[in-house]
């Protein structure tokens, strides 16, 4: 079985697309025409599938970190596309939840309408207003949480890129250091060779000088014997 980063990425991406297709069927298909309870059940399943899709995206991001730098950008683009699609369905799921919540509030408990015309609950309008305000606050908190999550993921991706750049720079520094060590060793060898050559040169000069002195002495002896013999 192929366990390369690109193969694993493709597997996770395929699982993600299957989950998204299931979510799309639930939020955009026939579930809109079902009853309230059936829609609630479908939305609960959508929430679980959104969590699964989010996990698939996280796994895809992990696999991208192990890919060669030459192919990494195209896979990062596919991750961004998956995140955009996932965010769209998260927003759609949240909107459907809000619609069901409003339907429950407007429909009252046990099918009794909530409003000033209800004799059993004269404060129904105030309660409904407070509940709607609470729902709005909850939606606002959810939006902020999703935004924080998006920023955290972007920061994580940037941090991973920085770490990758630092690793490459460290490798370059180590290669440069090895090159300097090699050059230093070569210089040491060259210096040793030059010293040997200098010693040999002085030795040859000394030998040459000695030979010249001997020759001069021999010539002087011969001349002396020729002149005074």
TrEMBL record:
Q: Name one GO cellular component term.
A: SNARE complex
The UniProt entry, under InterPro entries, shows: SNARE, T_SNARE_dom, v-SNARE_N_sf, Vesicle_trsprt_v-SNARE_N
Which residues span the membrane?
Answer: 206-224
Q: Establish whether keyword Transcription is in the entry.
A: no
- Which source organism? Thelephora terrestris
Pfam families found in the cross-reference section: V-SNARE, V-SNARE_C
Mind listing the GO biological process terms from this record? Golgi to vacuole transport; intra-Golgi vesicle-mediated transport; intracellular protein transport; macroautophagy; retrograde transport, endosome to Golgi; vesicle fusion with Golgi apparatus
What name has this protein been given in UniProt?
A: Vesicle transport v-snare protein vti1
Report the subcellular localization. Answer: Membrane
Q: Which PANTHER family match?
A: VESICLE TRANSPORT THROUGH INTERACTION WITH T-SNARES HOMOLOG 1A, VESICLE TRANSPORT V-SNARE PROTEIN VTI1-RELATED
Say which family it is in.
Belongs to the VTI1 family.
